[in-house]
Amino acid sequence: MQYLEIKPNQKLSGEVRVSGAKNAALPLLASTILSSSTVNIGNLPNVVDINTLLKLLEMLGSKFEKKTHHIEINTTSINETKATYDIVKTMRASILVLGPLLSRFGHCEVSLPGGCAIGQRPVDLHLKALEQMGANIEIKNGYILATAPNGLQGATIVFDKVTVTGSENIIMAAALAHGETTIINAAKEPEVVQLCEVLKDAGLDISGIGTDTLKIVGTRQKLLEFKKFDVIPDRIEAGTYLCAAAATNSEITITHVNPSHLDSVLAKFEEMGFGIKSTESTITILPAQEIKPVNITTTEYPGFPTDMQAQFMAVAICANGTSIIDEKLFENRFMHVSELIRMGANIHLNGTVATITGTPNKLTGTDVMATDLRASSALIIAALVSNSTTNVHRIYHLDRGYEKLEEKFGNIGANILRKSE
Ligand code: EPZ
Question: What is the pLDDT of residues 334-362, one digit of tens each?
Fold first, then answer.
């Protein structure tokens, strides 16, 4: 097993180029199941989760030619509609093949994704919506057996909760359905917006893009003609590097990013006393005279993203004063807290609310264990400002969503080494 050795008391400077967004690339790759020909995708992030989904699409019969950040994929040769447990258990976002497979073929078997470190993460809203579109859903031996022998039918779907992959699954299901689908209370994340835009460019009649109400006129199982596109920048990767700069009170610039995707996050940096300068494709963060505490409640886009919660907790440790973070989306997304406390942080949990009493310059490095993708990045940020060396173990969590992490950190002056146990 590999781990990261992180030296203490670091300052950062320079530029980081963010990769394409993992959480955009995953639904976009799944959507190629709806394509009548080869799809040409650029700015693909080179991370484990993308390779896992490509392995699944290949197992189903897809063919592709992949370079590091570019792929040409053709799914017309798919001859299997079963997504097996061994793949789905390693990446729950594999559930994103359910909607397109069912809509195109009228049947599929997808393993129920287990929960994960951050919560039980059910898919009941995905399944309820597909049933409303005429699908017959049976759960058997841990698999979702879905059939729609006459194809899916358009319907009015009201999501009881905003669900990102639930919205994406139903958008893709509705694309080939017979009739019009209205999705009410749809997610509005930039990754959902890009999926809608790519499908619109492929000829789908879809309106309300970027709002919580989408109208989709299904093609009655006629495949779409995708145009070439690039995956949007990863706003969470960008936010993670900005948090590293904030915690170390350094100036860095993020390039190839879309600042408008981070409005709620940038506002919180400014609340804490940091300067933010943006252009069309860059964000520069400037040191604070004094790092002030912050209050954060995670919510759906465009509110403060849950995927930035752990990283901001690491920054809050460096503030003069007490911060409050309320995690509203996932029931167990404080796995990083116990590890941060082991490093000397003063954090008190009460249900979904974490109270962080700032202890600037008081963290001590030690051996810590990553538990999920974003918690791992919070441990790296805390390690950068600790007074002694930290070793972050189980970094396979990081490799799922952060491309060339120690190289990118190295480019801004961080001393992070990947070692083997
Ligand atoms: C997506 O997960 C992201 N993953 C997550 O990023 C992100 O944290 C999450 O959205 C919230 O923004 C991808 O896009 C691949 P949800 P998703 O369905 O779609 C409940 C990362 O770090 N819910 O929006 O699985 C659910 O339990 C990952 O990159 C149901 O109850 O999240 C949660 O409380 C982690 N029933 C809330 O809704 C359902 O059927 C939001 O979940 C579906 C969801």
Answer: 999 999 999 999 999 999 999 999 999 99
Between the CA of 249 and the centroid of ligand 1 the distance, in Å, is 31
Ligand 1, atom nearest to 165 Cα: 19
Looking at the chain, the whole-number percentage of residues with pLDDT higher than 90 is 94
Residue in the structure block whose two tokens are 């579109």: 133
CA proximity to 101, closest of 25, 42, 30? 30
286-304 confidence digits (pLDDT tens):
999 999 999 999 999 999 9
- Let me know: does 245 contact 11? Beta carbons within 8 Å: no
Number of other CB atoms surrounding residue 325 within 10 Å = 24
- Ligand 1 centroid–CA 47 distance in Å is 19
Structural contact between residues 322 and 344, judged by C-beta atoms closer than 8 angstroms? no
Tell me which residue has its CA closest to atom 9 in ligand 1. Answer: 164
Closest C-alpha among 416, 401, 299 to residue 47: 401
For the full predicted model, state whether its pTM sits above 0.85. Answer: yes
Which protein residue's CA is at the shortest distance from atom 18 of ligand 1? Answer: 163
229 beta partners = 41
Query: For the chain, how are helix, strand and coil distributed in percent, rounded to 5?
Result: 35, 25, 40
Mutation to probe ligand 1, out of 91, 97, 164, 195 (largest number of atoms < 8 A from CB): 164
Let me know: does 4 contact 409? Beta carbons within 8 Å: no
Bridge partners of 14?
252
The predicted-structure confidence for 360-398, as pLDDT tens digits, reads as follows 999 999 999 998 899 999 999 999 999 999 999 999 999
Phi/psi region, residue 344 (left: phi>0; alpha: psi -120 to 50; beta: rest), is left
Q: How far is CA 277 from CA 249, 253, 396, in A?
A: 15, 9, 33
**What pLDDT, on the 0 to 100 scale, is given for residue 405?**
93
Q: What is the pLDDT of residue 332?
A: 86
CA 118 – ligand 1 centroid, Å: 10
**From the CB of residue 270, how many other CB atoms can be counted at a distance below 10 Å?**
12
Residue nearest (by alpha carbon) to ligand 1 atom 44 = 163
- Under a CB-based contact definition with an 8 Å cutoff, are residues 297 and 326 in contact? yes
Long-range contacts of the stretch 258-267 (C-beta < 8 A, 24+): 258/190, 258/232, 258/233, 259/283, 261/190, 261/232, 261/233, 261/235, 262/235, 262/238, 263/302, 264/302, 264/303, 264/304, 264/305, 265/235, 265/239, 265/304, 265/305, 265/308
Q: Which of 49, 163, 235, 397 to mutate to test the pocket of ligand 1 (most atoms within 8 A of CB)?
A: 163
**122 close to ligand 1 (CB < 6 Angstrom):** yes
